[in-house]
Amino acid sequence: MSNYLPTLKQLQYLVALKQHGHFGKAADSCFVTQSTLSAGIRELESLIGVTLVERTRRVVRFTALGDRIVDKAHRVLREAEELTAIAEASGKPLTGELRMSVIPTIAPFLLPRLLPRLRSDRPELKLYLREETTQAAIESLRHGAVDCVLLALPFPTGEVDSEILFQDRLYVAFPRDEPSDPPEWVDPDMIDESKLLLLEDGHCLKDHALAACNRTDLRANATMMGTSLHTLIQMVDNGLGVTMIPEMAIASGILDHTSIAARPVQSERSSRDIALVWRRNSPREKEFRLLAGILREAAEANGRLPQAA
């Protein structure tokens, strides 16, 4: 066995540098000075006898071996965190720290109902939230940056465990007078592909909307430019097109004070599944399932939100 083993702190510094690509930003994320982080990585390189990072004035570039060690470091840090999680799971559930990523098409609509309930029912829980796109959230989960993710399925999540909370129906939102006599349901064939506005790449709602329509011309011609649902709503309200939004957004009042009408999509894939996901075989599985139950109850507590499936 080697006389030297990297410390967890050194591995954290290395992973942070890879994530941010900048010594100053990496140091800030680790709550240390830039000189401390740089010295820690240099010590790691010196003691294992290899160069992991090529440093220039403008660029931080990892060597091929550096990239391999970063991948391994992610797993080591995740395993170390799970050692603590095993101990925490043996005590009172949903106490201490819990890091959760939430996608932008859920966070502003469900969290206002969830957080007061958690503060009331679980005052010892310290919930740290990150809002990020689905792919970024899954990467954060895989690398151990978060413990669980609140997202919408279907989406290629890899090897995770999950619990479905409820189904969230998709609606077409359009200027109230276009058409003047809107139908009760919107068939995907009725959507003008030249007027469809969708979220930009990285948001799973874009894929769910296109899947609900199941039209190759929409996939090819839809305008993907919205950075948020609120942006899309403003564009529709100004007559620039139509878009698709989830029921939970409507229930939370996103159409209030607009001249927009919305009708449900009539198709086989007209809804998305809201789910909580976590790493497979996590020692905190019971906690996550308990949290899923609280999330479901928070959704059901307000009659304007979708009911649990």
What does this structure look like?
43% of the residues lie in helices and 22% in strands. The chain has 309 residues and is α/β, with parallel strands linked by helices. The chain has 2 domains: 8-87, Winged helix-like DNA-binding domain superfamily/Winged helix DNA-binding domain (Arc Repressor Mutant, subunit A), CATH 1.10.10; 97-309, D-Maltodextrin-Binding Protein, domain 2 (3-Layer(aba) Sandwich), CATH 3.40.190.290. Strands 3, 4, 5, 6, 7, 8, 9, 10 and 11 form a 9-stranded mixed β-sheet that branches. The longest helix is centred in the N-terminal third of the chain and has 26 residues, at 64-89. The radius of gyration is 23 Å and the shape is globular. 35% of the residues are buried. Mean pLDDT is 83; it is low at 303-309.
Write the layout of secondary structure elements.
Layout: H1 8-20, H2 23-30, H3 34-48, E1 53-55, E2 60-62, H4 64-89, E3 96-102, H5 107-121, E4 125-131, H6 134-142, E5 148-153, E6 160-175, E7 196-199, H7 204-213, H8 216-221, E8 223-226, H9 229-237, E9 242-246, H10 247-251, E10 260-264, E11 271-279, H11 285-301
Parallel strand pairs: 3-4, 3-5, 7-8, 7-9
Antiparallel strand pairs: 1-2, 5-11, 6-9, 6-10, 6-11
Helix pairs in contact: 1-2, 1-3, 1-4, 2-3, 5-11
